[in-house]
Specification:
Helices cover about 25% and strands about 30% of the residues. With about 150 residues, it is α+β, with helices and mostly antiparallel strands. It has two domains: about 35 residues; about 80 residues, Beta Barrel (OB fold (Dihydrolipoamide Acetyltransferase, E2P)), CATH 2.40.50. It has a seven-stranded mixed β-sheet with strand order 3-2-1-6-7-4-5, with no helix packed on it. A hairpin with a 4-residue loop joins strand 1 and strand 2. The longest helix has about 35 residues. The N and C termini lie far apart (about 120 Å). The model has no long low-confidence stretch (mean pLDDT about 75).
Length: about 150
């Protein structure tokens, strides 16, 4: 008698049991495909039912204030009270901005300046964040300065 070769599949059966074995193989193959699909669908359905926890950092970013800009001409700067008065370029409305000593000021050429360099008559853009009626000035850019005397038109 010859030894049987090593194989991973079920031995071939001849006769009446051969048909049942083939049906069993087909059914096990189909189950191997269907069961993981059902488990995946059940896992997704249960994940959708659970409420997601809120992440505090994301809520602060998305629920935060809005970034805005205001273009105008400096009317006055009160460094003792940390207040900047700016007249709107269009409409003649005066806006009051609370400023901090840490507010960044940039000149027309992009150089860093001090708050004291904001002279009345300078054309500026104030970048601020608005949160529940509270303005927080982040950056001020000087577009042009009126302190220079202009030559009369000829």
């Amino acid at each position: 008698m010859r030894p049987l070769p090593f194989c991973c599949s079920a031995p071939k059966v001849a006769g009446r049991g051969a048909g049942h074995l083939r049906v069993l193989r087909r059914a096990s193959f189909r189950l191997a495909l269907v069961i993981p699909g059902l488990l995946l669908a059940a896992g997704l359905a249960s994940a959708q039912d659970r409420p997601r926890p809120k992440v505090p950092v994301i809520d602060k970013i998305s629920g935060g204030g809005s970034h805005q800009a205001f273009n105008g001409i400096v009317q006055s700067l009160d460094e003792k009270r940390n207040i900047l008065n700016v007249n709107a370029v269009e409409g003649g409305v005066t806006e009051i901005f609370p400023i901090k000593k840490s507010t960044h000021v940039f000149g027309p050429d992009g150089s860093r300046l001090k708050l004291g360099d904001l002279a009345p008559g300078s054309n500026i853009i104030v970048y601020f964040e608005l949160r529940a009626d509270h303005r927080s000035v982040k950056r001020i850019e000087i577009l042009s300065s009126e302190s220079k005397k202009r030559a009369p038109p000829s």
